[in-house]
Amino acid sequence: MKIKVKKAETKTEEVKISTEFIRLDSFLKFKGIAMTGGEAKAFIQDGIVKVNGEVCTARGRKLRPGDVVRVFSAEYNII
Description:
By secondary structure, the chain is α+β, with helices and mostly antiparallel strands.
């Protein structure tokens, strides 16, 4: 039996921050990816979130301009 898999198209978005950095868990809540801090923590600990191409399990990770966050099929460029 053959199964056809359709790859989801990656959505890319630029996110401007007005501070020096934003914590990863706060970023997920800010973008509406996670509704609560607990949900953000679960996404991060489950390895769903990548920062600059690597799985990131540190919810306090500081995101600065130039970082790229990938969650599910979306990619966010921090500017």
